[in-house]
Each structure stands twice: as C-alpha cells, then as structure tokens.
Amino acid sequence: MAKTKTTYFCQNCGTQSAKWIGRCPSCNEWNTYVEEVVSKGDDLKIPGISSTSTQRASKPQLVNEISLSEQHRIKVYDKELSRVLGGGLVPGSLILFGGEPGIGKSTLMLQVALNMKNLKVLYVSGEESEQQIRIRAERIGINNPNGYILTETATQNIFKQIELLQPNLVIVDSIQTLHSAYIESSPGSVSQIRECTLELMRYAKESGTAVFLVGHITKDGSLAGPKVLEHMVDTVLQFEGDRNHVYRLLRTTKNRFGSTNELGIYEMQGSGLREVTNPSEILITAREELVSGVAIAATMEGLRPMLIETQALVGSAAYGTPQRSSTGFDLRRLAMLLAVLEKRCGFRLGIKDVFLNIAGGIKVEDPGIDLALVCAILSSNEDIPISPKVCFAGEVGLSGEIRPVNRIDQRISEAQKLGFEHIFISKYNKKGLDVKSYHIKITMVGKIEEVFGLLFG
Ligand code: TYD
Ligand code: MG
Q1: What confidence score (pLDDT) does residue 236 get?
Q2: CA-to-CA distance for 44 and 206, rounded, in angstroms?
Q3: CA-CA distance, 272 to 81, in Å (whole number)?
Q4: How far apart are CA 223 and CA 214, in angstroms?
Q5: Mind listing the pLDDT tens digit for each residue in 141-173?
Q6: 203 with 156: CB under 8 angstroms?
Q7: Measuring CA to CA, which residue among 307, 364, 300 is closest to residue 330?
Q8: 334, 356 Cβ separation under 8 angstroms
Q9: For 332, phi and psi rounded to 5 degrees?
C-alpha cells in the first residue's frame, strides 16, 4: 500500500515546505503554513464513485441542451428552512450550517432528520452519544422509521457506513470533530477541516446526495476554520439569536441555488424549535398603558415584511462620558443617527446616555428601521409616548432627510393587516404608490423635524 504524502503550503504565497514552519521564508508572513494531502496512497473509497469516474473528462455542452431535470428539489417539511434554502433541497448540494455553541444547531438538524420521513437520513454525530441523541429525539417528539444515527468521527469509517446504508440525506454534526486518516493534524485544525470537507464535497457531488455540515462559529462571528470552507460549499446558513431569548433567526450568507435575502424564524421551546409563521405578532409587545421610547418599525427581512418594536432610553449621563449601547442594531449606525439629530436637527443628545434595544433579541440590518429608531429616541428624550397604532418605514440620511426604502407597498400592507392605523414613510417613496388603495393613514415626510412636529409638536 502506497503511503499518503502530505506537504505544508503557505496559504499566502503558496511556497511549499516538507515541515511546518512558523514564518514563511518567501513572503515573511507568520503562521500561514497548512498541511495538505499531495497524494493519497490507497485511493479514497467514496460511495457511488468508482476511482475511474474522476478521470472522465467532461465535454462542452450547449447551454440550451443541458437538461433542467436536475433542478428538481427535495421537499423539506420545515417551511422556514425550505424557504431559506430557496424552495427545498437541491440533490448533491453541500450546505454549511453555522452558529454559536448552544444556539440550537443540533436540535434543528435532528428535527430535519426526523421530519424527512420519505427519505433515508443518516445523522452523523461526533459530539454526542447515541443515547444523548435519542433523548433529544424523544424531547422533540417526532419519530422517523428511516432515520439513522451514527456516532463516528473518522471520515473513512463514515464513508464505509454510507456505502452500506445508501442514505438520501447526510447530516454531519460537526465538521470540527471529523478527521481524515490522510492528515496527521488534530480534528478541528485548518487542514483537517479542509480535507474532510473536500472528501464530503466529492461524495455529495458525485453521488447526488445532499449533505449538511454543522460548523461552529468563533467569538467574532466567523466560522471556525478556514474561509475556504465557505467557498467550497454551495450554501452557507447561519443560525443566530440571543441565547437568553427564545427566538432564533436562520439566514443564508451564500446560496448557489436561491436568494440570500430570505430569513427564517424559530422559537426555542421545551420540545424543540417551532417555526414562527407570523413574526410580527410576537415581536410587538401588547401593552396596557402607553410608554415613551417605543416605536414600531415596518421592516423587510429578505422578502418578508415584519413589524418590529424598537425601544430607546435617553437619560442624563451619570458619568462624564455619555454611554451608548445597542442590542440588535449596529452601534456605529446609532452613533451616526445621534450625530444627525444633534447637528442637523439641534437636539442636545451629546450629553445624554442612549440605550437602544430591538425587541425579541433579533438583529436587524434593514436601513428602513432608522426612522422608527429616531422616533423612539426622540420619544424617550421628550418623555412623550407614541401611539401604538403608529408605525414607521424610512432610512435617515446624513443631512437629516428621510430617504425612501424598498418594497414600500409590502410594508404598508403588512402594517395595515396587523391593524396599524397610521404609517410614516419618506415622501420620496411617493412615486408609483397608490395611496388610495390602502385604508391605513399614510403620512409622507421629508425631514426629521417634520416627523417631530407631527408627533410631539
Ligand atoms: P443544541 O442544539 O445542542 O445547540 P448547538 O448544537 O448549536 O450547540 O441546543 C442547545 C440548547 O437548546 C440547550 O441549551 C437546550 C435548548 N433546548 C431547548 O430549549 N429545547 C429543546 O427541545 C432542545 C432539544 C434543546
Ligand atoms: Mg451541537
């Protein structure tokens, strides 16, 4: 049996070395050497692939003649996941599913495995024992006669079992625990993660089986392991949310088979993750009395309109330096909004503490939330509540102007559907908008001062 040969390569300039070295002699970068397999002694046995098939050269084909039947997707019973994936699973796709520890990745993946009753599903776990997974399955309370669990971390052994079982869907939890016999470094290292992903990618592509890879996320929010992992896979899903809150958001940061704008929402319950089909109702608190510092934003998350409660607390700074803190919203953008209020509109907020919160522990990226945030800040500053029947959709520019937002008609319809009576939008959104078709009152504004006058004046 020929021996496997590995060499170390500089990830920066590509210089090769037989041994690992800390500093590349060619480009002088530190810590860039990574082990890579140069030749595999005994050919890797990947189910569904004969060793000759990789040597088959492909021929050019006319675009029009390529059959569309490959577009067929596997139905996913989880509606949120299905939508985020772009309408089901594409056979042969490799999907990376990332998230912080304890956010619920294993729970969601097990739920998917148990829900796909029409498929033979193999759930490979390198993190938990069979018993632990069984207990979790009991908790989730779904039963799948075609669901198999394998606790294994060596890729060669996993492929052996796949060969025997011939599953239609494979879930690997997690990529950081796998190791390939071809590489000496420990599981979780860059070279191991890369090699294991490559092997799984070859398996997925050549056998046409969809594969989910669970990946951990480091503190700074990037997937632990090399960035190349994200380049290699077809789809990158991110599971995020505040662990102390019950809501979890599922986003795509890359999708070769669909849009990356879609968002899925789940609620973590005692019996697993529940799909949230009407997010607006849970993101707005029903209050008995009016409070200042609360404003509702009509936002879009992907193609989905959503009404979200924004909260602000403005108070005199207790210490010399005013505090600025924000949950669920970019702190730098908050600083910008405060600067606009100070400089363009003359509100003296520079000496005040400002705290901001988006209800439900979710993160919002839509700039259309700006206007609601500004109104929440002003409401808290004036200590005058805003009616709970009013909502806002507009971006705030550096000169204090209220800029138009996309899909305004969808935002207005959603607000109307949820029983709001009044919505403030940018006057630049007027074009093409049929105001008469809505019974909700629509006020178009161009500057923050106008909104201020209408709300608190
Ligand atoms: P888990 O899926 O293990 O997270 P990850 O794989 O991302 O590390 O989920 C862990 C948390 O989810 C744990 O703190 C308990 C909670 N949980 C529930 O609240 N309800 C449930 O039904 C399950 C299975 C877990
Ligand atoms: Mg887990």
Answers
A1: 92
A2: 13
A3: 15
A4: 10
A5: 888 888 999 999 999 999 999 999 999 999 999
A6: no
A7: 364
A8: yes
A9: -70, -35
Determine the Cα–Cα distance for residues 347 and 414; give it in Å rounded to an integer: 32
Contact predicate 310/373, CB 8 Å: yes
Is the CB of 268 within 6 Å of ligand 1?
yes
Structure tokens at 446: 């161009």
Amino acid at residue number 174: S
Residue 245, CA distances (Å) to 55, 65, 266, 268, 295 in order: 51, 51, 11, 8, 21
pTM (two decimals): 0.78
- Give how far Cα 243 sits from Cα of 90, 101, 246, 249, 262, Å: 30, 9, 7, 11, 22
Extended strands (E) in 302-450: 304-316, 324-327, 352-358, 390-393, 395-396, 402-403, 422-426, 441-445
Residue 239 Cα: closest atom of ligand 1: 7
> CB of 98 closer than 6 A to ligand 1?
no
User: Which residue matches tokens 């294994």?
Assistant: 152
Which residues, other chains included, contact 442 with Cβ-Cβ below 8 Å and sequence gap of 6+? 412, 422, 423, 425, 433, 435
Provide the residue count of the chain: 457
Please state the rounded mean pLDDT for residues 84-105: 91
pLDDT at 220: 62
Q: Which atom number of ligand 1 is nearest to the Cα of residue 99?
A: 7
Edge-first strand listing for the sheet containing 352-358: 324-327, 352-358, 304-316, 294-301, 390-393, 422-426, 441-445
SS3 assignment, position 373 = helix
Atom of ligand 1 nearest to the CA of 127: 6
Query: Which residue out of 138, 268, 269, 273 has the highest number of ligand 1 atoms within 8 Å of its CB and is therefore the one to mutate?
Result: 268
The CA 47 to ligand 2 mean position distance, Å, reads 26
> Tokens at residue 193, please?
């993660």
**313 forms bridges with which residues in the sheet?**
355
CB-ligand 1 contact for 340 (6 Å cutoff): no
Contact criterion met (CB below 8 Å) for 452 and 371: no
User: Across the strands, what pairs with 325?
Assistant: 355
Give me the pLDDT at residue 52, please.
47
Q: Is 103 in the pocket of ligand 1 (CB under 6 A)?
A: yes
